[in-house]
Amino acid sequence: MPALDAPIFAALAPLLGRLPPDRFPRHDELGALAAPTVVSGGGAPIRFVPPAAPSREFSAQYEVRIFETGEVQTRPGSWHDLFNALVWLAFPKTKAVLNGHHYAEIRARPGERLRGTARDVLTLFDEGGIVVAAADPKQSALLREFRWKELFWRRRAEVLRSMRFYVFGHAIYEKALEPYKGVTAKALIIDAAPSLLEAPLAQQLRELDERAADYFSRMQALASTRKLSPLPILGIPGWEPANACEEYYDDPSQFRPRSKTGDRPRF
C-alpha cells in the first residue's frame, strides 16, 4: 500500500487510519465505517457491494441503483472505487445531492446517450472536485483570477493561515498516488469564518459538506461546467516539495494565466 499521509489526503485521513494497513478493505469493512446518516439521494442507507456485469448503460444504472437501493458498486482492488467509497463517508450530504440530481436527470431523459450539461457538471465535480474554504475574499478572488504566483507564493503565509483545501473528487485522489505536473481540480470556493479553519477536522468537514450540498442543491449550480474554478493542486503550499521555490510558479504549462477575453483556459 502506498503512503497516504500526504496533505492531499487530509479529508480522508480519519477514514484511512481505520482501514487495514496492508491490503484493500473488504466491502463489509467499508460498510462498517458508514454512519446510519450516510444515505443515497433517495434516502437508502449506503452499502458498498461488488459490481454488476458492465453494460452500455452502466453509468446511468450505477447512479439509479445507488439512489434506489443505496448500493455503491465497488470493484475490489480498485483505488478509484475505494476513494469514491471514502468520499461517500467524508462528504455524505454532498454525495447524496449529486446522486439525487443524477437520478432526476436520468429519469427525465430516458434513453438519451449524452449526459447533458447538468450531469457533466455533477460528474466533473464528483471526479475532479476540490472544496476550498477561504476566510479572506481577496484570496478567493486571486484564485478565481488565476493569479497563482501572487496567491501561492507572495501571499503564502496568508494562504496557510486563512485557506483550507479538501479534495472531493475520487479521480484526483487516484492521481495523487503518483502525482504529476498539471493535475487540475475544479474548485468550489466557500467563504468560511476564521474560527472554522481552526476547528477540529471533523467539524470542518461536517460544515463544508453541508455548505457544498447546499450549493449543489440549487439548479443554477448545474447550468455550466465553467462555474467551478480550475485549480492546479500541486501549487497549493506544501502539497509538492518543489513549490517551496519561487521559480516553481513561473511554469506556464502548469500555471496558465486567464485569457484576455475572460475565457477560462482549457485544462
Describe the fold and architecture:
The chain is an alpha/beta fold and 267 residues long. It has helices spanning 13-16, 27-31, 58-69, 79-90, 92-108, 116-128, 137-144, 148-154, 156-162, 170-176, 194-197, 201-217; strands spanning 47-49, 71-73, 129-134, 163-167, 184-191, 229-232. α3 (58-69) links the parallel β1 and β2. α4 crosses α5 (92-108) and α5 (92-108) runs parallel beside α12. It starts with 12 loop residues before the first helix and ends in a 35-residue tail after the last strand. Residues 261-267 have low confidence and may be disordered.
Strand and helix layout:
Layout: H1 13-16, H2 27-31, E1 47-49, H3 58-69, E2 71-73, H4 79-90, H5 92-108, H6 116-128, E3 129-134, H7 137-144, H8 148-154, H9 156-162, E4 163-167, H10 170-176, E5 184-191, H11 194-197, H12 201-217, E6 229-232
Parallel strand pairs: 1-2, 3-5
Antiparallel strand pairs: 3-4, 5-6
Helix pairs in contact: 3-5, 4-5, 4-10, 5-6, 5-12
